[in-house]
Amino acid sequence: MWKKSSLLLLISLFGTCLGRSVKGTNDVKRLRQDKRWFPISPKVVIFSMYADENVWVEPFELYANITIPGLSPLFPQVQCDWKGEICHITTGEAEINAACSVSALLLSPDFDLTSTYFLIAGIAGVNPFTGTLGSVGLARWAVQVALAYEVDSRQIPSNWTTGYWLEGTEEPGQAPAEIYGSEVFELNTNLRDAIMPYLDGVKLNDTEAAMTYRANYDYAPANQPPQVFFGDVATSDVYFAGSLLGETFGNITKLWTNDTGVYALTAQEDNASLEAMVRASKAGLMDISRVILMRTASDFDRAPHNQETVYSFEYNQGGYEPALANILIAGQPIVEGIIEHWEHKFKKGVKPQDGWLYNSDVLHTLTTRKRKRNFGRFRG
Ligand SMILES: *[C@@H]1O[C@H](CO)[C@@H](O)[C@H](O)[C@H]1NC(C)=O
Ligand SMILES: *[C@@H]1O[C@H](CO)[C@@H](O)[C@H](O)[C@H]1NC(C)=O
Ligand SMILES: *[C@@H]1O[C@H](CO)[C@@H](O)[C@H](O)[C@H]1NC(C)=O
Ligand SMILES: *[C@@H]1O[C@H](CO)[C@@H](O)[C@H](O)[C@H]1NC(C)=O
Ligand SMILES: *[C@@H]1O[C@H](CO)[C@@H](O)[C@H](O)[C@H]1NC(C)=O
Ligand SMILES: *[C@@H]1O[C@H](CO)[C@@H](O)[C@H](O)[C@H]1NC(C)=O
């Protein structure tokens, strides 16, 4: 393809001439005038949720700032390398910011994302029964656990164990009855398996402070060194803590995944980003089977057994620093692996597990023509 090769030549010329100390704005303007640079078709797009998680600009030389409408006012630009191979956005925190920013990128005519891989890479709370401070979790399921009814636990019936129960149901523990569509997403586990070899032998960061806090737990994996593990992510705008809510949302994760999901990590954005991605996939703008959801653990979601009522929040657990470091330590080989093995392995996509397309969201958006809604019973 003539166009593409001359485009690559042009871009590599730019890259070589400009080197690391590009001036940015003017160069992007010049590229904009050259119709051949747009739409940009990156091999990998990375999502951070807030500024500290953006560990990518220097390692990947993401110095081309591209302004598109609809991103967070705090992070209004897509940042790309000069080859247009790797791009990054910061979505802004929690569900609303994530949904809006990801939609803006996916709908932007400046980008062709039909064969792009997406790495959602942020920090998270961790269930001490599945991981520890600094651990790196790769998800199959993402569940919007707080999409539920709630009553303060001081006012629950005496035989209830929690103040959360699912919409359309009568009490905690009942299976889902009412569906909004964003409750649960399943990701391509074959893609997850395909990138695991790139994480072989990575040496995860750890700190004295994290080791000290971890020693308060008398069970594994909480008291073990950080590792890469498979674990599902719960999404909630509310930054919750404590064993009762941890168990509640673990139970809800099981309800939404027919007992196959294990609540391991907690974050404030993933289901929102994934909802935008399912919609864009339905429109043929991207491929939802090319999404990797990686979360690194910055704090335990609950206290050690003997300190249940004096739960100390994330700041004094010592996990924040290794969690940020491990975004790059684990994420960089994934991105580099995808690019290095692009032609023979990733370009054509990684075939997902059987039945996946149907489950990729709870409305089965990608396999049904008509949106089916189960209105269930409404407690009016
Ligand atoms: C790109 O944008 C970031 C913040 O959005 C800014 O810090 C940086 O200086 C910009 N880089 C260039 C090359 O303009
Ligand atoms: C959000 O995503 C998590 C997995 O990351 C999934 O378990 C959960 O069901 C999703 N929840 C909603 C409401 O989308
Ligand atoms: C609680 O007790 C009520 C009244 O006996 C019963 O209908 C309900 O099923 C019980 N709920 C739970 C969660 O045990
Ligand atoms: C890992 O943690 C150590 C100890 O806190 C820190 O000094 C170091 O800079 C970290 N390494 C990386 C690669 O982030
Ligand atoms: C979670 O579910 C288990 C098994 O049904 C139950 O024993 C436990 O009380 C539930 N936890 C909460 C906090 O509701
Ligand atoms: C759970 O099982 C129900 C009933 O068989 C099915 O409709 C639903 O798609 C399943 N959900 C998941 C996430 O597998």
From TrEMBL:
Keywords: Signal, Transport
Role noted for this protein: Nucleoside permease that transports adenosine and guanosine.
GO cellular component terms given for this protein: endoplasmic reticulum
Protein name (Swiss-Prot/TrEMBL): Purine nucleoside permease
InterPro entries, per the entry: Pur_nuclsid_perm (IPR009486)
Family annotation (PANTHER family): PURINE NUCLEOSIDE PERMEASE C285.05-RELATED (PTHR38643:SF1)
Highest taxon of source: Eukaryota
Entry's family note: Belongs to the NUP family.
GO biological process, one term: transmembrane transport
Signal peptide: 1-19
Pfam families: NUP (PF06516)
This protein's record includes keyword Transport: yes
